[in-house]
């Protein structure tokens, strides 16, 4: 441990601890004794402890390497990079990065103190950050920051803003053809960055999300979204041009954003000019200018008085890390659904770097019919649990007679502390709300469409065994994809209750609708194949899968079929499916998730459940490390349980 007053490298006297993360990362205000006169500097320290991931050290070294070659007035200047031996670092080797010190406060600190940024302040911040991004993105090789957010922007006493913390930085030339750890912060990172594909447009999205947070006072992942677009315009009054500019920055699809930071800056200046011209016209038309100005002053005073009476309503408190993670899981599920017309059932499939277990929380996913629920459950009784839900709905398209599919998310917090999983959000009619034991953290979802309500009613009838009524209601659903998904769920329920012949008939009806669908054919057939696999109709599911043309849908369906074969004890057939997944993976269409290893891990677990431990161990030994360790642990536990049960029987 390093202490205040300690001198490092016979040069830097530590003065005050500015930040401390997990004990292994510290930021200090220090004095550079070698400077004439002595100058304040900021020192970031990283302890190389047994708990440190090797990737963290590589990122730290990359930050120092990149900063060394940057020269911009709004990026704190690189001064030095050094390491401390174990003796100087109290038993641990430390690495240090020295930069010039900026006296001021981060935008996050200002948000936490209750500050709400005005439109003019937001524009001024945007212009300065864009200047930095133009510089970074036009370097050769291009430099991506990848973690723009309020806490990484420092506002000095003269109102200049500085971009700090290049710990997630990436040089684009080195990224080509390489795989990097997913970095960034949920709520600010765009969908493509959560999948490990950051571009210069990713920094623009993060800037847009940051500005929206500053202007609304609401964390981005807690804002309502539609088709993954942040819905913020009703939270703050902005000039139309600036509002449209922000919307373009946070477009979910990277290709729909500005192509580069320079283009974004030009568009912002154009929007400002348009607003200025409109303001001049308004002045000429207005006859009661003095009255309008008086009303504005009265409104300002009223708001100030309201804030003084009810200060709690104007204070933005930094949310728990778990809450932010569940918000990130929600958005990643929406991105996953865009690609697959299905939700991920396991965290690794989302590719967002959130582990199943952290020091304080367990994260997991529960997929259901037409929805998925993402959980953060505390490991200590003095913390609160969180649950997020993402639902499939539809709306009538303006330019066609068909219904369009979209996903909508909701985030809820347990009302009381404790490690009990909270109830999932509840669908009522065509809306969704948090369960009674939780409170809403994002806007309530309303008007999810008539099809959403019909689907819920149909499934409710199937749950009580009224299959004919369920099918009749499903027939009224306009969206082909939703209708087919609901019919497949009804068929599965009928088979599970012993009415296999009726279930087969309903599956046949769903297939007929899917084959006639022009836009939803593959996604609908994949949904049917997965439902058939869940019902144990694996051979029929394989037949349906053979009709799929799009590889990502086929891989998802085959993965479900392999799991079903393994669960049924047909391990050879399951391994055959895994071989097909391996062959498909070579086409590199959908390479973010290892379907072959997922299937083989499921097979190994099922073999362990069946008592075939040696065969399970053989399969586990050839799995990638991220699967191998968990499967080996499962086999050990299964063997111990089996031996215990056998001992009890004897």
What is the helix content? 40-55%
Provide the CATH architecture of the largest domain: Orthogonal Bundle
Domain unit count: 4
Terminal Cα span: 56 Å
Indicate the overall shape.
globular
- Quote the CATH topology of the largest domain: Transferase(Phosphotransferase), domain 1
Helix count from the secondary structure assignment: 22
The count of DSSP E runs of length 2 or more, i.e. the number of strands, is 20
Calculate Rg over CA atoms. Answer: 28 Å
Q: Main β-sheet, in a few words? A: 6 strands, antiparallel
Q: What is the CATH homology-level superfamily of the largest domain?
A: Transferase(Phosphotransferase) domain 1
> Reading side by side through the largest sheet, how are the strands ordered?
1-2-3-4-6-5
Report strand %: 15-25%
Low-confidence stretches: 172-182, 281-319
The first-level CATH class of the largest domain is given as Mainly Alpha
Oligomer: single chain
* Average pLDDT level: 81
Structural class per helix/strand content? alpha+beta
Topology readout:
Blueprint lengths: L6 E2 L3 E10 L3 E8 L6 E9 L6 H14 L10 E7 L9 E7 L3 E3 H6 L6 H19 L5 E2 L8 E4 L4 E3 L6 E2 H4 L15 H4 L5 H17 L8 E2 L2 E2 L9 H10 L11 H25 L3 H21 L11 H20 L6 H4 L10 E8 L2 E8 L7 E11 L6 E12 L11 E3 L2 E3 L4 E3 L9 H14 L3 H8 L5 H17 L3 H17 L4 H14 L3 H8 L5 H17 L3 H15 L9 H15 L3 H9 L3 H25 L1
Antiparallel strand pairs: 1-2, 2-3, 3-4, 4-6, 5-6, 7-9, 8-11, 9-10, 12-13, 14-15, 15-16, 16-17, 17-20, 18-19
Helix pairs in contact: 3-6, 3-8, 6-7, 7-8, 12-13, 12-14, 13-14, 14-15, 14-16, 15-16, 16-17, 16-18, 17-18, 18-19, 18-20, 19-20, 20-21, 20-22, 21-22
């Amino acid at each position: 441990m390093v202490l205040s007053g300690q001198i490092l490298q016979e040069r830097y006297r530590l003065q005050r601890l500015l930040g401390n993360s997990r004990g292994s990362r510290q930021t200090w205000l220090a004095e550079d004794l070698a400077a004439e006169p002595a100058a304040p500097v900021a020192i970031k320290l990283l302890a190389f402890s047994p708990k440190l991931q090797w990737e963290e050290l590589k990122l730290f070294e990359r930050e120092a390497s990149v900063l060394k070659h940057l020269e911009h007035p709004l990026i704190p200047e690189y001064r030095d990079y050094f390491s401390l031996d174990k003796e100087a670092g109290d038993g641990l080797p430390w690495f240090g990065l020295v930069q010039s010190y900026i006296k001021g406060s981060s935008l996050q600190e200002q948000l936490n103190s209750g500050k709400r940024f005005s439109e003019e302040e937001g524009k001024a911040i945007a212009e300065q950050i864009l200047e930095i991004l133009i510089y970074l993105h036009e370097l050769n090789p291009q430099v991506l920051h990848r973690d723009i957010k309020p806490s990484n922007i420092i506002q000095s006493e003269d109102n200049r803003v500085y971009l700090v913390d290049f710990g997630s930085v990436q040089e684009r030339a080195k990224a080509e053809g390489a795989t990097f750890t997913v970095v960034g912060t949920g709520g600010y990172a765009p969908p493509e960055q959560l999948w490990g594909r950051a571009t210069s447009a990713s920094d623009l999205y993060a800037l847009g999300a940051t500005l929206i947070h500053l202007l609304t006072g609401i964390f981005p992942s807690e804002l309502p979204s539609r088709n993954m677009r942040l819905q913020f315009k009703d939270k703050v009054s902005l000039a139309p041009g600036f509002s449209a500019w922000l919307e373009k920055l946070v477009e979910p699809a990277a290709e729909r954003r500005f192509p580069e930071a320079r283009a974004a800056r030009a568009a912002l200046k154009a929007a400002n000019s348009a607003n200025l011209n409109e303001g001049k016209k308004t002045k000429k038309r207005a006859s009661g200018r003095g009255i309008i100005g008086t009303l504005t002053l009265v409104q300002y005073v009223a708001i100030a008085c309201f804030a003084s009476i009810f200060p709690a309503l104007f204070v933005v408190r930094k949310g728990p890390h778990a809450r932010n993670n569940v918000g990130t899981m929600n958005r990643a599920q929406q991105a996953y659904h865009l690609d697959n017309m299905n939700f991920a059932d396991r965290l690794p499939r989302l590719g967002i770097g959130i582990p199943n277990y952290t020091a304080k929380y367990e994260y997991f996913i529960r997929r259901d019919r037409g929805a998925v629920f993402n959980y953060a459950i505390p490991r200590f009784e003095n913390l609160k649990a969180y649950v997020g839900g993402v639902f499939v709905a539809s709306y009538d398209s303006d330019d066609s007679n068909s219904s369009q599919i979209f996903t909508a998310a909701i985030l809820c917090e347990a009302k009381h502390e404790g490690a009990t999983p909270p109830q999932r959000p509840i669908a009522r009619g065509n809306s969704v709300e948090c369960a009674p034991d939780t409170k809403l953290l994002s806007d309530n979802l309303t008007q999810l469409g008539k099809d959403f309500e019909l689907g819920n009613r149909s499934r409710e009838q199937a749950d009580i065994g009224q299959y004919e009524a369920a099918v009749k209601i499903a027939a009224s659903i306009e969206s082909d994809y939703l209708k087919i998904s609901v019919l497949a769920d009804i068929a599965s329920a009928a088979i599970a209750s012993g009415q296999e012949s009726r279930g087969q008939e309903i599956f046949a009806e769903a297939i007929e609708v899917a084959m006639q669908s022009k836009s939803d054919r593959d996604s609908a057939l994949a949904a049917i194949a997965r439902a058939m696999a869940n019902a144990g109709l694996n051979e029929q599911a394989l037949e349906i899968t053979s009709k799929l043309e799009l590889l990502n849908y086929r891989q998802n369906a085959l993965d479900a079929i392999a799991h079903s074969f393994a669960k049924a004890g047909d391990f050879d057939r399951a391994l055959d499916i895994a071989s097909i997944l391996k062959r498909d993976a070579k086409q590199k269409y959908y390479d973010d998730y290892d379907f072959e290893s997922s299937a083989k891990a499921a097979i190994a677990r099922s073999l362990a459940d069946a008592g075939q431990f040696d065969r399970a161990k053989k399969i586990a030994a050839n799995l990638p490390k991220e699967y191998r360790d968990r499967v080996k642990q499962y086999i050990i536990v299964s063997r111990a349980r089996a031996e215990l049960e056998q001992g009890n029987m004897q």
